[in-house]
């Protein structure tokens, strides 16, 4: 069974981890803003890394309406964008969906637990030196 993963954000952190999960065979969909959707449509997802480069088309959506609940939702947004991120993914959270936040700090856990009390929330830690280029 392939794990279905929804990654909110295809910037530096979300793009890197989502891309590596995609490369490993995961069924990854990125939830992005329309400007990022245009970049992904035009260029695909490209990673350049000492651990290996990767480029391929990536599935993306700009809304989770009519999106079947995934196994895992990875939140790769800025901490100040958490409220909007929770609003954006809420319709896609199913009874067995796991949320994995990759944000700075730990204050977001309380917010996530309050918003999604019946949902499993994993702790995440990412230490990356990444840059999102102008072309995405």
Backbone structural class: alpha/beta
Radius of gyration: 14 Å
Number of strands: 8
Major sheet strand order: 5-2-1-6-7-8
Helix content: 25-40%
Ranges with pLDDT <50 over ≥5 residues?
Answer: none
- The average pLDDT value, as a whole number, equals 93
Number of helices: 4
Looking at the structure, what is the overall shape? globular
Largest sheet: 6 strands, parallel
Give your account of this protein's structure.
- With 136 residues, the chain is an alpha/beta fold.
- The protein is 28% helix and 21% strand.
- The strands form two sheets. A six-stranded parallel beta sheet has the order 5-2-1-6-7-8, sandwiched between helices.
- The longest helix is centred in the first third of the chain and has 12 residues.
- The termini are far apart.
Briefly, what is this?
The protein has 136 residues and is an alpha/beta fold. The protein is built from four helices and eight strands. β6, α3 and β7 form a beta-alpha-beta unit.
């Amino acid at each position: 069974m392939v794990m279905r993963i929804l990654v909110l954000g295809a910037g530096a952190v979300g793009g890197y981890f989502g891309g590596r999960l995609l490369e490993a065979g995961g069924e990854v969909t990125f939830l992005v803003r329309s400007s990022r959707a245009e970049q992904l449509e035009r260029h695909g997802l490209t990673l350049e890394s000492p651990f290996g480069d990767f480029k391929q088309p990536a599935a993306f959506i700009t809304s989770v309406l009519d999106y079947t609940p995934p196994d895992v939702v990875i939140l790769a947004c800025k901490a100040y964008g958490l409220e909007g991120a929770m609003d954006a993914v809420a319709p896609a959270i199913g009874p067995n969906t796991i949320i994995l936040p990759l944000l700075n700090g730990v204050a977001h856990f309380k917010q996530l637990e309050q918003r999604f009390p019946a949902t499993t929330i994993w702790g995440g830690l990412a230490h990356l030196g990444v840059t999102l280029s102008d072309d995405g």
